[in-house]
Amino acid sequence: MSKRPRTLDSFFSPPATKRSRQAGGDTSKVANGETTPSQLSNHPTYPFAVPHLPPEITDILNFAPAQEARIINDRPDLDLLYFQPYIPKEIQRPLFDFLRREFFFYKVQYKIKRGPVETQINTPRYTTVFGLDETSIFNDAGEVIDSATGKPPSGKDAYTCKPRPIPECLDMLRRLTENTTGSKFNFALVNYYASGADSISYHSDDEKFLGPDPCIASFTLGAKRDFLLRHKKTPAAHPSESQPMKLPLASGDMVLMRGKTQSCWEHSIPKRKGGEAERGRINITFRRAMTKGGTANYYRYNVGDGGVFKWDGGRGEMVAWKGGETG
Ligand SMILES: O=C(O)CCC(=O)C(=O)O
Q1: Which residue has the higher pLDDT, 168 or 16?
Q2: Percent of the chain clearing pLDDT 70 (strictly above)
Q3: Ligand 1: which of 127, 190, 191, 215 to mutate, most ligand atoms within 8 Å of CB?
Q4: Which residue ranges are recorded for the region named Disordered (predicted)?
Q5: Is residue 3 situated within a structural domain?
Q6: Going by CA atoms, what residue is nearest to atom 2 of ligand 1?
Q7: Could you give the number of structural domains in the chain?
Q8: Which ligand 1 atom is nearest residue 283's CA?
Q9: Is 218 in the pocket of ligand 1 (CB under 6 A)?
């Protein structure tokens, strides 16, 4: 039995009127001439349905990776594959526009306690997440069941969050990434950096729930942003600790971080003033969580308990979605 979450084809809701299936085709033209796919991924945990990618995108996405990867392993403990780009040029902009327009996003807030001091954290970017760790899968009805027993996890095994299946538009990219890399992924985390003021500070994705030496595929769409990597502090004080390596990630690029990269290095997207960053950037990471703790962590810090945001094309910004609270 497959242990990976699946896109729930049996769960696709009937398309809304505007998106209704046209005889003899999968897409429909709406009043403004935009082509929209007629199939949707839906699930009770989604605030609203997410369309499949239109064929204009999937037909070309199937040619990914657009370039062979460069191996970067010339510094201690660093092991990267750098695809420049992975996503073919013709669809970089349409794919960015599609994902920004169709996803539900969150601005997660939480408190951390360091000793007696409690600090309020306002995540400096929009986030959303889909997936389920290896212990469980979604059945055809969209319910979470234990991978081994086929029964809903209960008692001490019950989930405290509400896991969401990966929508088909992201699952296609996940499958391609698995084929390219030979690694398995069960989670998709999405960041939206609306401007150069949005960022992610130095951290490593080295949580126990990812297992040893996790392999993480990280995609960029939209604005180019600097990705900084530095070695974690060691008694030897290697130069890579104080002189970060900079990868200017451009639309369509993919970096695969593997080996000891997470256990020995940290990475960040620093704030930038003005310039290209103001156009917005989407980052997608595919990861493989091994335990329920990973699922709890990813939903806590990427969905949280606040309201939903959705792209407003007219205003050119994310706005609070009127449909309500988190699904
Ligand atoms: O946006 C990026 O390229 C990095 C994202 C990241 O480090 C993360 O989500 O943990």
Answers
A1: 168
A2: 87
A3: 191
A4: 1-46
A5: no
A6: 283
A7: 1
A8: 1
A9: yes
Residue 39: per-residue pLDDT: 96
Residue 2 inside a domain? The answer is no
Ligand 1 lined by 87 (C-beta under 6 Å)? no
Q: The domain that contains 175 carries what CATH number?
A: 2.60.120.590
Alpha-carbon distance values, 122 to 80, 107, 157, 199 (Å): 30, 7, 30, 11
Q: Is any atom of ligand 1 closer than 6 Å to the C-beta of 199?
A: no
Whether 299 maps to a domain, the answer reads yes
Angle among Cα 145, 160, 154 to the nearest 5 degrees reads 45
The tokens describing 10, both together, are 């049996």
pTM: 0.89
Residue nearest to atom 3 of ligand 1 (CA): 283
Which residue range(s) make up the domain with 182? Answer: 9-311
169 domain residue, yes or no: yes
- 108 CA from centroid of ligand 1 (Å): 15
Residue 36 pLDDT class (50, 70, 90 cuts): low
Residue 206 marked in a binding site: yes
